[in-house]
Structures are given as C-alpha cells and as structure tokens.
Records
---
Amino acid sequence: MQLPIVAPAPLVACHAGAFRRLFTDERTYENFQTYLTGLIVLENKSLSNISRCTLKSADKTNLSRFLSESPWKSEAVNAHRIQYLLAQTVNMRLDGKQSCLLIDDTLCEHVGSVLEYIDRHYNHSDSSYPLAHNLVTSHYRSGAVQFPVDCEIYRRYEDLTQWEQFIAKHFPDQEIPPTTQARQTLHKQFDPTLLEDPEFAKLHEQFRTKLTIAHELLKQAIEHGLPFTTVLMDSWYLTTEFVEQLATHNKQWVSLLKRNRNLSMQGFQLRDAQGQPIPLPTNGVIKVEDLVPLIPATAYRQVEIDDRRYWCFSVCTRLSGIGKVRLVISFQSADLSAPYAVLVTNHTDWSAKQILSKYLQRWTIETFYRDGKQLLGLDQYRVRSLSAMQSHWCLVFVAYSLLHLACLASSSKPPKGKGLTHPIQTIGEVVRQQGQALVEQLILFAHDQLLQGQAAAQVFTNLFAKQQKQFSYS
C-alpha cells in the first residue's frame, strides 16, 4: 500500500500557474497537476496507480482521456515550457557562444506489441533487438542549465511502409531473409517495383531517417529562440548531409568519429620518438584505426579537465565527405593502454582541451535519459496511441524541467553569463525532497481531519479507500 497524495507536489503547485492558460477547463488543469505529481513522486507511473494514489483524482479513464482526447496540445505546452525555462534561467545561462544543442536517441522498451508503432530496434549496448519506440531527442546545455527540448519518434522503413506485406502482395513466393544484409539486397531488387504501387509509394514518402529528424529538431530549437552555437552529436549523425545542414544554420559541431572513417593525411608528416618520418600510405588516405597505432607516445599531451586527466593527440586533417576538421585522439591513461575516443570538429582553431571539454558536455543527455527512465517514467507509459505517448513524453519533459529549476535554485544569483557550471542538486535529490514534502502535507491533512472531529479510523479509511478498493478487485 502506498501513501495517498492529498495535494500536488510543491514544485508542481509553484509552477503550474504558468501553464494555466494552455488548458481549457479546471478539470484538465487539475489532471495536468495530478499527472506531473504522479510522475515525480510515485514509483509506479501507470494511469491507474496515479489515480488510486491521488485522493481527489477521478478514475484512470479520466487521466487516459486527458492524455489521448483532451483538447490541450502537447506542442503548445512544450513550446511554453521552453520559453518559461529561458525566462527563469536568464541570469544562470552562459552566452550563446558557450551554449550547445545535443542530439541523440534512446530506446523506450516494452513487452508486447499492442502499442502503436512498436517495433524491434537495434540496441547498441548489447547488440539485441528489443521491442521499443526509438525516440530521437534534442537537449539544451548552457553551463549549469540543461533541459530536453523536443523529441520525435523514429520508425524503421520496413515498419512504416509495411514492406513485408507488400512483398507478399507483389511477390507471393519470395521468402524474407532474417539478416539485414540479405534484406538490403531484396530492397534493391524489389523496391522499384513496389514503388509503382500508389499505396506503397504514399507510405514511402512518409519515411524520415534519423538524420531528417535530427535536422527538424535543429530547426525547432532555432525557432524556439534557444541561444547556442555548437551542436554535439554521436558518430551516427556525422554525415555529409547533416554537416551541410548545420552549415546552412551557421552552427559549429563536435562529434565522435567511427574508427573506420578515412582521413586524408596529405601534407602532414608523422614522426617517431627519434624524429624519423613514419611511413604513411602513398595516397595519403588512412583509416583512423590504422593511424592510431602509428602515433608515438611522445606525440600525446596531458590534458586536465575537472580534476580528470586525459592524454590527447590533435591534428588538422581532412575527413572524407566532410572536409577540413580538427581530430583529437584521447586516452584515459598515460600508458595509452585503455580504450580511446576519437573526436572531430569543424572548430579547427580549437585546442584538444577545448574540444574535449565541449564534447564532455554531451553526457548531459545521457543523464537525462537515465533520470527520465529511472525517476520520471519516460519509458513507463501503457497508452496505445502515438498522440497519447507524445502527451506523456511532453509531461515528462515538464516534470524534469521543474525539478531542474529546483536543482538550480540559489539565494544569490550570479551575473548573467557567469553562472554555475553544474547544478547544485541532482534530480534524484529533488525528487526525494518532493516526496518528503507530500508526506508532510499528508500528516497535516490527517491532523486537520482529526481536529474537525473525525475518528482516526474514519480518517484512515477515507485516505486509503481508493487503494483498498483496487486491492479488493485484484
């Protein structure tokens, strides 16, 4: 049995008024506060559990309609949230030249296939293919200020176009192979014929790659008025197409680099510890993974960032399909034995320390995914329609943003552009504080009921009636 919630979480009550005009009636506004409170303080984030733990809430069907049928718009709430955050953090953020937009994607895994657009996606961490929604997100970082911006669901081409069904329709005797490489061969062979089918062609036109989604998220961040100069991204997004799109928006970038990418080393002479030239391919082109073993230990320089030491080699080179870049190869141990990371940027005048310091800020989006899933239920929805899922993700973003504002709270605000580099609290700490505050509210509520003459047993019965009813059905 869980403690009943007798009022919205203090953070929700403090900030909810800023969103009031976005909701058409008082009941919808109450559901907004109820859902946010449930996301923040309850371990089980399901609609039914939020409903039975909130003393004044209606049943779960009302919350379900709030997510899927209510006239409020998640896009409007999200846009308002961003403007609200920018206004609240005006004295805490750095200037645009020091601020970044982060782009990445995460899997929201589920069991069962009843959710709309659920599909099997590749999980890089364990090379599995779980049932999941693949969520591509953008995230803003400016000193200590860091919050999610937008998200879009990625759908695999075969899922969106119902490719296997159309293969069966036009080529009924064709077996579908299980491996990706073999299926790619079939795509090349049969897709031109499938595209002659108007129904398939219409679905084909709706397909968006992760790169297309990333560009849309970039444009949305600019339209929101977020001040930033640099985009931080994983190696997946480092393509000629996306780099060209960044250039059209006058944005710099820093990215991880895959080790099989080709570098042009023409005009660069690599020398060993004795100063003798190290032979490179005669055409001047070499893969990153082939270059690293050739670099002598004496070429690495120690870099210290936030009390951590790295050993880095930096060089300006040309990257196939991208152009002139600065490359940084970084080890975490002086003996160069640990796994290494390869960073690349079009900030060709930056030092290795500047590049590494900037890219380390990308970890912010990973901590958001962790906190969003472990503490706020980013992947714990059970709604079936995409519109309801989008409402859920929007409200998770709101909950995270309100918690983050509490992480930044300070009695003495520094001058604009000279804010903290890190929050003064973690999201987990503020979540626990909100839970403790709700326990205090519950005690005061029960005390007030006793003062009004209710018997202790009756107060207890009233507080836990909804949960007892739920248990009697189970």
Note: The mean pLDDT is 90.
---
Amino acid sequence: MKILIIGGTRFLGYHLVHKLLDQGHEITIFNRGLTPDDFGYRVRRLKGDRTRPEEMKEALKNLEFEAVIDMIAYRGEESQKAVEIFLDRTGHYIHISSGAVYIVTRNYPCPLQEEDFDREVIEEPKAPDNLWSYGLGKRECELVLRQAYQEKGFPATIFRLPIVIGERDYTLRAYSYFIRIRDGGPILMPDGGLNVFTYVYQGDVIETIANNLLNPRTFGQAYNLAMEEIISLRSFVQTVAQIMGREIEMIDIPSRLLQSLPCGLSISPFSSRRPFVLSVNKAKRELSYRSTSFIIWLEKTINWFFSSYSGMPPDNYRWRSLEISLANLFVLKVEEVRKQLLEQEVKNG
C-alpha cells in the first residue's frame, strides 16, 4: 500500500514508519527534514513545511496515496488545506488528534466519551494558556474534517490521544519521574498526587492505525485511544519505583505553594487539579481495541530510557536541588505545626 505520513521522524511517527515498513508498505514522509532518521533508502522523502500551504501543495502535486496519516495538523486551516490537496487522491485520511479537544469544553465529565466533543466551548482564558490554544486548534481541525466527510465524503478518521508515553518520547515528561526516582531524593507530590488519568502507550496507537488502514467503518468517526487502567499520579510513581527496585519518599505538598515558586508545577508534569480519563469503549466495540498492560509498557519505557537514551535531562530537572531543599523544609514545618497542635491540645486537655 502506498502511504503518506505527514511528520514521521520524532516519536509516534517514527514508530509508525517502522511498523508500516515491516508490513511491506511503500512509505513517503513529508516534513521539514530537520530530525535525522534511520529509515535509509526504504522511504521516499518530500521536504517542506506544512504550515506553508503552497509549499505543501507543490511538494505533493500529482501524487496519490491509498492512505494519508497526518501527525502534525494543529490548526483548522492546516486540515482545510489537506482536504483540498487529498480530496479524491486518497482512500483514507487519518488525523491524529488529542484529548485536549475535551479540555476546552465546559464542565467536561469523567470519563470522557467521544460525544463529549460537542459540549459547549469555554471562553478563552484571560491569561495565555498553551493547552487551551492547543485544544482549540485540534478541535478546529476535527470540525473541518467532519464537515468534509459530511459534505464531500472525505474518508477521514480521527484518533484522539491523551499523553503518549513510550520509547523515544522526546517530551521527557515520564522521564522526569524516572530520573528523580533514580537519584534517590524525595519526590514532591502536588496535592498528594491524587489526580487520576489514562495515558496511552505509543505501541497501542501504532497497532490501531496499522490495523485499520482503509477500514470504511471508521470513515467520519472519532475514537479515543488510551490505556484501560485508570491510575493516580501517586500510583504511577509508586509503580515506577517498584519496577526500578527503588525505595522512595513521597512528600505531599500543596500545588498552590509550588505555583508560587519559580519552578511551578513543571517539576511534576503529570500533575493536574482535575481527573482526565478517556473512555475507550467505542474503540473496543468497533475496532477490537485492547491496550497493552500498563505494567508491561511502563517497564519497556523505563528500560529504554536507561539503556538507550543519551540526551540531556529534562529541563525541569534543573530545579532538583530546590525540590529537595523544599521537601526537607516542608517536612520540618509540618512537624513543628503538629507539635504545636499537640501542645495546645494538652493545655486545653
């Protein structure tokens, strides 16, 4: 099958290219050519910037693909241009979207079903909010594709993903916890680390895409893809420590205290004041989706980072000394308050 991947060299796209090559497909990648890859002669490379519509159109003119997988559409106009380019020139267009499309809706529930996309959108925050902007942009992409399917029969499928974790994860968010557990210092748990979430393993996303190419049942549909287990940040950290064979000290600390400091919540990138759980019932029912066990993929990810990753530590690790000092100070202050309360209780006894 002739397949075009828009993006395809950093994380999710990298794994997808290798999967499809292993299956014998003919792969073309379109991107800016800034990230080196190890695909060699097995892929055709088209260089260009998808945010420049005419540049993308010129690079892809007169080309047809049985499937197009768009990893990097972030604005409605980008998806609109893709519809114009690939209308009647592909049998299937897959858009990688985000669970952030739900975050911009009012009072989003838990768990989130695909139809919750249609809830009322909240007003734009007064302060700059990158997550809100990202979610709104992804939402606009989806609306363009929905309209193209309804009005023109454009064969689009949408996969909504939460945070993706796995080997080669360049965001280093999960690694932020791995490296702190390895150094043996205390781990700060904003608000006790009780926020719950579902994330997704990169391998489960790749398998789902590969298994549903040209699946007509998916045309015009959106699907959540996520792990089936629901866990808290606290249990995530405890599980990582167990896999690594490390004893850890977790210090519960108010998130508002951290937000008043220069480090903010950056030191704990999976912290949130709200639950974020994606239901995968639709994907299980219609795509026979089954997620890899959380323990299995987490161990694979940890092993990859400590055996193969050779880059810099996450930027948030520069605050590590501050974290440790803050943890020690916070514990002392809590103990002082506890003693004072006990003394007061004795006096009032």
Note: DSSP finds twelve helices and 13 strands in the chain.
